[in-house]
Amino acid sequence: MRHGASDREQQVLDALIKLYIERREPVSSRMIEESGRLSIKSASIRSVMHELEKRGLLTQPHSSAGRLPTDEGYRVYVDGLISDLDLDRDQAAEVEHALHEAGEDLHEILHATVRVLGRFSQNIAILAGPREFASRIVGVDLYQRDTNNVLVAIQLESGATRTELVDTGREVRAETLLAANSFLAERLMGRTLDDTRRDLQDLLQTDSGDPEKDMAHNLALSGRSLFDPEGTLHLTFEGVSEALDQPEFGDPARLKALLELISSAERFELALDQFAGQTRGEVALAIGQENALPSLHPFSLLATRFELGEKYGYLALLGPRRMRYARSLAVIRLIARHLDRLSV
Description:
The chain is an alpha+beta fold.
């Protein structure tokens, strides 16, 4: 029993989603019965589907149609797959061979992985990076320029100093600025730019009403460009033309969403940092509206972070919510673990 679903409910949900992935059309109880996947009658299947719809796991496009899985329905289905994901022996051997053939050159390894990922998953494979690790913050200083304006300066272990002039919109008291400086230094020093950029809101979480901490919070957020890396991660895409043949991309809104994603590397990188920043050797998955970016809501996104030598980046898979999750998860997890072994 998974997510409170009975065994029968889980069986019906699994059968419906597998049929929908294969046939690309709403699934009826009769279609499930005729598929031979379950040993129960259409009337019983229809009753279970009605319960699944009431729970928000299925939806019916119109009264005479079959059902489609919702994002929540896909999530229940996928969570049941994660504990038992493997490519068959021949497929796994083919993936391993392709990765081994890339040799030891980092560029060749990563481009081989993104090609393999796209070919085996039949979704859009994305390589974000690689990029050298960002410097750590070794100093934080706040300087009052005039009544309202504060210069925020951070020093990096590379020797570089970054500054940002922030208008606070109110008079700044010297003692408040000093306390805010101490608070920021305590929270930020020793952290990399990447970690700081990703976790800034959490790092500066404060109780309302503390003027020093409130000022530190506002100054850091207003000057958050200080924590940006040197340029955005370069994105490489594989399998876009094949993906566009899938019926989901016949919808102009979904095609527009895909084009927006491809053209907004900085926002996509931030989403990857927040979503998959801690996934080294493992895989993160967001389905539909679980994705932080609205442009990703029509899709499912799988991603893993890799760290090789002094560089890091992400490998990701983007596809319709009606993707072959078992195969996609298996191949990206195999690749993630291969890259993790190379980093040792």
